[in-house]
Design goal:
This is Ribbon-helix-helix protein, CopG family. Helix content is about 80%, strand content about 0%. It has about 270 residues and is mainly α. The protein has two domains: about 120 residues, no CATH class; about 100 residues, no CATH class. The longest helix has about 70 residues. The radius of gyration is 46 Å and the shape is elongated. The protein starts with a helix and ends with a helix.
Length: about 270
C-alpha cells in the first residue's frame, strides 16, 4: 500500500485545525453570557466563585492571590472599592481562560454551571421565583373545583387565590395601622386631659388646704383666748397639733400622692411663718 506522505500530513493538520476551531468555538459559547456592561454581573461572578469554592484550573486562576493583589492596587489607585469584580471579569475573558476552558474539563464544567446559575437568576428576576408548596388533598380539591368553575388552570387559580389573600392581608394591615394611629392619638389626648385635671385638682386642694389651715388656726386662737400667759401659747400649740393630726388621718389619698400634693402640716407651717 502506497501512502502519500504529503496528503497524510495535510490530513493531520486539517484535522487538528478543525478540532482546535471547534474547541475555541466551544470556549466562546461558554463565555457568551458574560457582559462587561453589567457591573452587577461582575460582582455576582465573584460571589459565585467564592461560595462554590471550585477546584478547577479556571477557578484557581481567577481567584488566585495575584488577583487579589491586583484588585487591592486598583482600589488604592481608583478608590472605587469594587476592583476585584472587574479584575476577575477581565481574566475570564482573556486568552489564558480561553485556553483553560479548551483544555480542562473541570474548567468547562465550571463555566457551564456558572452560565446556568446566571441564566436561572435572570429568569427568576423576570418571572418570579418558583416555589414548591405541600397542600392538603382537601385544599387541592377545592382549588381544582374553583379552577373548573372558572375555566382556568390550577396554577393560575392558585396564583389568584394567593394574590387576593395577600391583598386582603395588606388592606387589613393598613386598616390596623390606621386604627393604631387613631388609638395613639386618643391616648395622647387622654394623657393631656389627665394632666390638666390633675393640675386643676392640685390647685383646688392647695386653695382649700390654705383656707382650712387659716380656719383651724383661728379656732385654736379663740379657744386659747381665755387662758393666761404662757399657758395660752402652749394650749394653742397643743390644739393645733391635735387638729393637724386629725386632718392628716382623714386625707389618706393625699398622703399617697405626696409627690404632687403638699402635706396638710405644710400649710400650717407656712401659715405660722406668714
Amino acid at each position: 500500500m502506497i501512502i502519500n506522505v504529503r496528503e497524510f500530513i495535510w490530513g493531520i493538520d486539517f484535522g487538528e485545525v478543525g478540532t482546535m476551531g471547534r474547541t475555541k468555538e466551544r470556549s466562546k459559547l461558554l463565555r457568551s453570557w458574560i457582559d462587561k456592561s453589567k457591573s452587577g454581573q461582575a460582582e455576582w461572578i465573584v460571589g459565585y466563585l467564592s461560595k462554590k469554592n471550585d477546584e478547577s484550573a479556571l477557578a484557581k486562576y481567577l481567584m488566585e492571590e495575584s488577583t487579589s493583589v491586583e484588585a487591592q492596587y486598583s482600589d488604592a489607585v481608583s478608590g472605587n472599592g469594587n476592583a476585584l469584580a472587574w479584575v476577575v471579569l477581565g481574566k475570564m475573558l482573556d486568552d489564558h481562560s480561553s485556553s483553560l476552558i479548551e483544555s480542562d474539563e473541570g474548567s468547562r464544567e465550571l463555566m457551564r454551571s456558572m452560565r446556568g446559575a446566571w441564566q436561572q437568576k435572570k429568569y427568576r428576576e423576570q418571572n418570579g421565583k418558583q416555589v414548591s408548596i405541600m397542600l392538603p388533598y382537601e385544599l387541592i380539591s377545592e382549588v381544582d373545583k374553583v379552577a373548573r368553575d372558572s375555566g382556568q388552570s390550577r396554577t393560575y387559580t392558585l396564583e389568584q387565590m394567593i394574590g387576593e389573600a395577600a391583598d386582603n392581608f395588606q388592606r387589613g394591615s393598613r386598616r390596623l395601622g390606621k386604627r393604631v394611629v387613631s388609638l395613639q392619638k386618643q391616648l395622647d389626648k387622654e394623657k393631656k386631659d389627665s394632666l390638666a385635671i390633675a393640675n386643676t385638682l392640685g390647685q383646688w386642694v392647695d386653695a382649700l388646704s390654705k383656707a382650712l389651715a387659716q380656719e383651724v388656726k383661728a379656732r385654736g386662737e379663740c379657744e386659747a383666748m381665755g387662758v393666761d400667759g404662757g399657758e395660752a401659747s402652749d394650749l394653742f400649740k397643743d390644739l393645733l397639733e391635735e387638729r393637724v393630726a386629725e386632718l392628716e388621718a382623714q386625707v389618706p389619698a393625699l398622703k399617697i400622692r405626696r409627690s404632687r400634693f403638699r402635706r396638710v402640716r405644710d400649710y400650717f407651717v407656712e401659715l405660722a411663718k406668714g
